Amino acid sequence: QVHLVESGGGLVQPEGSLRLSCAASGFTFSSYTMSWYRHYPQKERELVARISSDGKWTDYGDSVEGRFTISRDNEKKMVYLQMNGLKPADTAVYYCGAADLYYKPPNTWGQGTQVTVSS
Description:
Layout: E1 3-7, E2 10-12, E3 18-25, E4 33-39, E5 46-51, E6 58-60, E7 68-73, E8 78-83, E9 92-99, E10 108-109, E11 113-117
Parallel strand pairs: 2-11
Antiparallel strand pairs: 1-3, 3-8, 4-5, 4-9, 5-6, 7-8, 9-10, 9-11
């Protein structure tokens, strides 16, 4: 059974840092592009970051470029999102997703983890 489980969300002050983790199971993790999306109320999910199956290629949403870093560990079947310089506008539910092609939207999602940036 395909499963993605996010963790690491929480409340953080502006300019603080958080590291999100996503644990994968039930599929050949090393063959899939992994991504992080975020969802604001009454808006569609937006891409935060994406990493290729071998970890060689990444891309980021414009609003997080230079502040967030995506990485993966194929042996552990984990994907991470290091978030630095957090802003109140980063407050959202963050989802981990898996896709079989780099530019395809994910077809498998985790349950999401809440990130709140507030003083």
